[in-house]
Design a protein that fits this description.
about 230 residues, alpha/beta, 5-stranded mixed beta sheet, 10 helices, about 10% strand
């Protein structure tokens, strides 16, 4: 299921699909740290040690991204990640296993902090600055999952303007997600995966050609984490 993390439609689709299919396992685009943060009623606080571990640039980019998602979520009365929480709720109510299939968020942010270039940083600051003075229309209905055409257009723009961000947040994580799903599919009869729509097409393609087995270095890979019902 390719979702938008702030779409009410995604929450509905996740619930209906899991209840209809009742899979052996529900796989989520989360790692243990983000899962714990998402499901906790308490707000997680980062200390200085955490910030130094993931890098100040990675920390700031994550902070800005979370703020933007939260603002957009308020427009549609949905909190970022509600579709993941719905998947967890339905899985637990039906005694289904849950698999966390994403890369450790600390590894992702550490890589991002090291890779982001000055050119990208200046471009990002410029776009944030211009956004305060020039209203830009969002090119799709944020209450729904964007069409494949819109996703591909946005992905191309990201790759061109922010290549290191694209590599770290999209391309490399596609390999992690697809490798974990490939292994899950080979060990379970029926698997439903809930991942961002921006990953969906490429992850499916990688699984079909069995590429995830060869596309990622072993020392950078953390295998999926199973949560028993």
């Amino acid at each position: 299921i390719g979702t938008s993390h702030i779409s009410p439609d995604s929450i509905k689709e996740v619930k209906e699909t899991i209840l209809k299919e009742l899979p052996d396992i529900v796989a989520l685009e989360l790692d243990p740290l983000r899962f714990k943060s998402l499901m906790s009623s308490k707000k997680s606080k980062l200390n200085l040690k955490d910030i130094f571990r993931i890098g100040i640039k990675g920390f700031l980019l994550n902070l800005i991204g979370a703020w933007i998602e939260k603002k957009l979520g308020k427009l549609v009365h949905t909190k970022p990640g509600d579709e993941m929480k719905e998947a967890v709720k339905i899985a637990r109510e039906n005694n289904l296993k849950i698999a966390l299939i994403d890369q450790d968020i600390q590894i992702t942010l550490k890589k991002l902090s090291k890779r982001v270039t000055w050119k990208e940083k200046f471009r990002f600051i410029k776009e944030i600055f211009l956004a305060f003075f020039k209203k830009r229309k969002i090119p799709f209905d944020i209450t729904k999952v964007p069409s494949q055409k819109v996703i591909e257009s946005l992905t191309k723009k990201l790759k061109k303007s922010y290549p290191s961000v694209y590599l770290t947040l999209i391309e490399e994580r596609n390999y992690v997600l697809s490798k974990n799903l490939y292994n899950l599919i080979n060990n379970h009869n029926k698997v439903i995966a809930v991942i961002g729509a921006g990953h969906e097409k490429e992850v499916i393609n990688l699984i079909k050609i069995s590429e995830p087995l060869n596309g990622i270095k072993k020392d950078n890979f953390i295998e999926y984490f199973i949560i028993e019902p």
